[in-house]
Amino acid sequence: MSYIVTKQTKSTGVAILLTLLFGGIGLFYASIVGGIIMTLLFPVIVFLLFFTGHFIASIGLACSYYIICIIWSIVSVSSYNRNIQNESSLLVAYRHTPLQIADDNYYDQYRKSLKKDHSTIWVIATLLICGLLFYLAYHFKYLFSITLF
């Protein structure tokens, strides 16, 4: 008996809509790691910057929050869908490979070579953007001195 396992692809439009409506929590549809970072870690960084006196950096990060979330969701959904297509083509190629050539490790080796996860790149990009905004706010704080009281 043979079974065919199918996976549902994710919709980019749904990912953008959920991210616009719910922010970091909506990002969980596209990426679990992105949802955790943008829901838990990113607001903590913004509040720490705000309460340590780096008002411009915290305002800049707060304004870029939704932009980062939307870009992250688009990239995560396209990466997920591309991985599904690669695995599907891999299964078709594996099923049509003669038994003399196909060994037990053939599928695993080919699957590992196709799977590329870009979530780590987006974590690093988010941290770099945060660092850049912090750097700019720190060095230009005298030009834009903001007093709350």
TrEMBL record:
Keywords: Membrane, Transmembrane, Transmembrane helix. The chain crosses the membrane at residues 12-38, 44-75, 121-140. The keyword Transmembrane helix applies. The keyword Transmembrane helix applies. This is DUF3899 domain-containing protein.
